[in-house]
């Protein structure tokens, strides 16, 4: 029975380039995890709460990244892989449920459930790499960094205060740094699928910003709430535009055209596994700012939510700058300027009514988009239509 299962897993290589229904189903659990990270920071809107929320998000992000690589090698809907994915979903759900108290009473349940998520991932990858020596070496290296990270989180569950936070930070740093130190030569993936999977997770994070608007607007739906909600949707739409209008197309094209092997693997690791995290983190911070802003649209934001809003926008834009720089080696000056201008709104954000701050953020993002649409009109149309045609003919 075991030998048969292993043969089935090894043979079930991914053939489809598009994301499967099971992968989307798996990502729905990650939606709850993102929502819980926002709730964690909203319940403790302090600088420490912000740091802890981002650490939890980083740990959960890295587990999601591992499954994105896995399902770009094996077909998740074939054989025992499907059942293993369901088991990992259950463990990830438990971790997500424990997020609000991950640094308190639920520290051990979070770490234990998270360990199961990561162990299932390594186990599946080990079986899938039975006849792939290079991939097996990479999996072993990942297994080492995973064991260190999980071990530190388990150790952190027995501490509190700054020691606990420090252990989380070290765990995340060592775990995420493992593939960078060990090298990326042996990894395998389907470029089109890999890029689409990361684009969808950005979309899921943007959905969390919409949810935050609804959660924040718990008062009577008066004119202020209507204006604030409309501006919040405009911010989410602008963030969507900045990624999906051109950047997603360029990323997928560049990744697909890179030389298979080390070059392509390192590009996927850096531009997607690493640089998409600050994009998602930026969106989560914006969601926190929107949630707090919609609660009292006529009052100024408190210091930490105000920083989360403008800092989240800046982080998102700077992640895009780094994404483009890593992909094509060019610097997006307009998005860099947009990030700086957004940060400069911070002193105003703690003085002006929340809806006014939202309006200023919309103005900055709108200016960046308007500049790109007019300044790079021909390039934009060429990229969108040419790559769409190539994708349809593939």
Overview of the structural elements:
There is one protein chain. By secondary structure, the protein is mainly alpha-helical. It folds into 2 domains: 1-188, no CATH class; 197-394, no CATH class. It has 17 helices and no strands. It has helices at residues 2-11, 21-43, 47-70, 79-98, 107-128, 133-156, 161-182, 191-216, 223-244, 247-257, 262-274, 276-295, 303-328, 333-343, 346-349, 354-375, 377-393. α8 (191-216) packs antiparallel against α10 and α10 runs parallel beside α13 (303-328). The radius of gyration is 21 Å and the shape is globular.
Name the average pLDDT.
89
Oligomeric state of this protein: single chain
Task: Determine Rg (CA atoms, Å).
Answer: 21 Å
* H/E element order: HHHHHHHHHHHHHHHHH
Largest sheet: none
- What are the segments in which pLDDT stays under 50 over at least 5 consecutive residues? 5-11
The count of domains is: 2
Secondary-structure-based class equals: mainly alpha
Please give the number of β-strands: 0
Name the helicity range.
over 70%
Termini, distance in Å? 38 Å
Query: DSSP helix count?
Result: 17
> Beta-sheet strand percentage?
under 5%
Shape: globular
Describe what is shown at a glance.
By secondary structure, this protein is mostly helical.
């Amino acid at each position: 029975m075991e030998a048969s299962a292993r043969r089935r897993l090894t043979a079930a290589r991914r053939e489809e380039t598009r994301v499967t229904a099971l992968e989307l189903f798996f990502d729905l659990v990650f939606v709850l995890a993102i929502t819980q990270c926002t709730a964690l920071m909203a319940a403790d809107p302090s600088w420490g709460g912000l740091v802890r929320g981002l650490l939890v998000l980083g740990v959960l992000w890295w587990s999601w990244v591992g499954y994105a690589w896995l399902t770009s090698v094996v077909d998740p809907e074939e054989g025992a892989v499907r059942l293993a994915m369901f088991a990992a979903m259950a463990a990830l759900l438990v971790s997500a449920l424990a997020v609000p108290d991950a640094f308190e009473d639920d520290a051990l349940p979070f770490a234990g459930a998270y360990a199961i998520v990561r162990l299932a991932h390594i186990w599946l990858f080990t079986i899938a790499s039975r006849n792939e020596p290079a991939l097996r070496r990479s999996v072993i290296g990942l297994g080492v960094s995973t064991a260190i990270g999980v071990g530190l989180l388990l150790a952190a569950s027995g501490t509190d205060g700054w020691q606990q936070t420090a252990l989380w930070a070290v765990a995340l740093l060592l775990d995420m740094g493992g593939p960078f130190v060990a090298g990326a030569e042996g990894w395998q993936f389907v470029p089109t699928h890999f890029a689409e999977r990361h684009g969808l997770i950005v979309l899921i994070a943007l959905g969390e910003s919409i949810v935050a608007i609804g959660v924040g607007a718990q008062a009577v739906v008066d004119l202020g709430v209507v204006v604030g909600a409309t501006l919040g949707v405009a911010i989410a739409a602008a963030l969507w535009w900045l990624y999906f209008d051109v950047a997603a197309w360029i990323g997928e094209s560049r990744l697909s055209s890179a030389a298979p092997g080390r070059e392509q693997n390192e590009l996927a690791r850096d531009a997607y596994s690493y640089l998409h995290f600050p994009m998602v983190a930026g969106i989560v911070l914006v969601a926190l700012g929107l949630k707090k802003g919609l609660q009292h649209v006529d009052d100024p934001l408190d210091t930490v939510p105000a920083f989360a809003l403008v800092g989240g926008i800046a982080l998102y834009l700077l992640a895009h700058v780094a994404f483009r720089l890593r992909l094509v080696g060019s610097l997006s000056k307009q998005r860099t300027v947009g990030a700086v201008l957004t940060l400069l709104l911070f002193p105003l954000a703690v003085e002006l009514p929340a809806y006014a701050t939202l309006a200023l953020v919309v103005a900055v993002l709108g200016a960046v988009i308007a500049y790109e649409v007019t300044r790079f009109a021909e390039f934009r149309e060429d990229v969108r239509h040419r790559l769409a045609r190539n994708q349809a003919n593939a």
